[in-house]
Design goal:
Layout (H helix, E strand, L loop, with lengths): L2 H68 L5 H20 L7 H11 L10 H18 L3 H29 L19
Helix pairs in contact: 3-5
Amino acid sequence: MSEDDRALMERLAALEAEVKADADAQRARKEAALEKVKAQRAADLAEKEELRERQAAMVRKKRPTAEVEDDGDRGSDLGGALALAKKANDVKNELAKKGEKSWIKSGLASMLLGPIGWLYAGSLREAIPASVAYLALAAILAKLPFIMWPVMMVALPLSGIAGVVYALQFNRTGQRQRLWGDKKKKELPPGK
């Protein structure tokens, strides 16, 4: 073997040793990282288990009162859901008392029909002129549909909101209330 071949073989052996040492170092880093991840997972699992045990202990302490409220062992989530449903039913009943106007119907009618829907619960002094103006405007804009749609996309939701407000005011006072303008006539001072 020549010197060049021997030098080449030595370099090749040195490179192989370097690659093997690098591979061993990477394997050692990988194993260390895996051990670290396993230790972290074990710590997380232990922490979760400890939290679960603390929560179970808290539930066991609260269970006697929860059983009285829930009428069985349905859990506190069901009790909370039942309480929320009861509150929602109370609100619904308060808003839908007999002799009162439905704010849902008023809002939908006003949103679909514009000011014509205000006739359900709104002040007739405002609803009738607004309805006539709405019908006249709709007749004019019907000939220009490209203008009508953008106007209606803004006007109808606002009308629906006004309808809801009319119904809520009716339910609060028991009579139709005005939204715009003076609610009472202004009296002139004496001597004028």
